[in-house]
Amino acid sequence: MKVLQRYFAINIAQAVLFVLVAFLGLIAFMDLTRELPQVGRGNYMFHHALLYVALMLPGHVYEVMPVAALIGTIYALAQFAQTSEFTIMRASSMTTRMAGWMLFKIGIVFVVITFIFGELITPRTAPLAEKVRLSAKGATLASEFRSGMWTKDNVHAEASNGVRGPIVGSRFFNARTIRPDGSLVDVRLYEFDTALRMRALITAKSASFSGNGTWRLLDVTETLFTNSRVLPAPGTPLPKGQSIQSTYGQETSAVATRQVASMNLVSEITPKILQVSRRDPERMSANELAVYSRHLVENRQESERFKIAFWKKIIDPLSIFVLMALALPFAYLHTRSGGVSLKIFVGIMIGVGFILINSLFAHLGLLSTWPAFFTAVAPSLLFLLLAILALRWVERH
Question: Which CB contacts under 8 angstroms, 24+ apart, belong to 167-176?
Fold first, then answer.
């Protein structure tokens, strides 16, 4: 059995590696042709385009590995069927369960490789690729709004541990430009109390992160809206002997403005959160998705897209097991049922179908507010059911 396991592993690994290299070569060529019109703009040269394409390849490995495992396994098993090797193996007491167990052990290697590329390599190379591209062009991170980047933050009371003090309000964080190094240009901060009454407007020419949840603001103008007789927050009882005489007068705030060369701002927002908020969730690690989803939930913002991406990050590599199981029935089909090329074509169609259904469920789950875990696992469960039905059919016929 060890010899047979090694024989399976070598043939399948060679086929999967060949398919993977072919896919990566095709994707790299398409990425390069997409970058060529940008060559010559600023200092962006051809070698920058090549470096950008190379740094984006690890992310493509994560994306195409399940389909490469499917097609490579189909090719190897179809070769066994064509040369009658699989028939001899079955005649030598190899059952379907034993063949499936051998494929499972081979699949573990592919799953581990996929997790390494998805969790360790891609989250580092993708931001580096974007940084190389922007630095060569002399550009900054673009924004989907003309006013720049917006995010929400909590205002915490003064505490020795910074942002872990009690929440006393909320803050809307706006930066017109984000530089590749994480610093901000033209920053505006709108601070509100727990009753959503505006308490401060802070503008700064630039901001840089100092660590420990602290931003260093430069050339700052701070406008404070203060009133000692301001209305209490809704639900808060008035002090003994005090009554409300004029709602309008008490809501009118005094305005005080000051200008300082620099000031420190304690915030939950970090350069990592800003970078993550602008990146494609599919190119983020599960840890980054979990951190950013938690940040969105704490600030009562929509987080469903990132929750779905988180569970897909966990489930998609495991779909390799499902697709390899779906390839096993092809070993039972003899040459008269179709040659190797036909089986590979069918495998490609299955792989494309899996990608389309996986993407379809992600969009349907987002629109229909399905549970994130169900949205991520449903396509794999569907194809696992197809694999079980296909195996039963080939065994009976």
Answer: 167/194, 168/193, 168/194, 169/193, 169/194, 169/199, 170/194, 170/196, 170/299, 171/267, 173/267, 173/269, 174/147, 174/148, 174/149, 174/150, 175/148, 175/149, 175/207, 175/274, 176/143, 176/147, 176/148, 176/149
